[in-house]
Write a structure and sequence with these properties.
The complex is a heterodimer. Chain A is built from no helices and nine strands. By secondary structure, chain A is mainly β. By secondary structure, chain B is mostly beta strands. The chains are: A mainly beta, B mainly beta.
Chain lengths: ~110, ~110
Amino acid sequence: DAKTTQPPSMDCAEGRAANLPCNHSTISGNEYVYWYRQIHSQGPQYIIHGLKNNETNEMASLIITEDRKSSTLILPHATLRDTAVYYCIVRVDNYGQNFVFGPGTRLSVLP
Amino acid sequence: SQTIHQWPATLVQPVGSPLSLECTVEGTSNPNLYWYRQAAGRGLQLLFYSVGIGQISSEVPQNLSASRPQDRQFILSSKKLLLSDSGFYLCAWSKTGYTEAFFGQGTRLTVV
């Protein structure tokens, strides 16, 4: 799986949009971009994933650059409960492929 | 709907004692199953994954082992725990060909 690079930490004001970047410059054509988050002492929670088109669901939006070498997870109106470590993962959606987590970005939503 | 159960939530064990953590998945069949470990302040490390009954792949050599006696049951074991085995252990599942993995709530193991 391609490696990803994320900033170790970010702050965001409550109610504002949180934009979390991820670099995946060696991503292959068939690798998807996934985002998970982990709130302290809980299991990781799936947020969103995409291949090359931008995606949106009830939790977040995923913006993938045209060259697919980077992406941004957007939480449109961050709340205190969004404080967590956010992981960007790239993987091939094939039989037996694993989810490999890096260190992620620790997002702190401030009141 | 699918659910994943992992127990116990917390466990304190002495060095040298055995370990058995169990994970079960409901509401799906033939899932891919995973065991991860997260040391304090660190990222998630994949330990084992399984694509079917009796099929276990180890990612990291250590004194832990995994077994899958039934389709939706995944067990993490050790014969003799080490201090370095302390951590947060997470079980997860995914469908072959599907995209997301879903995680249990984890077991916090402290070896003393």
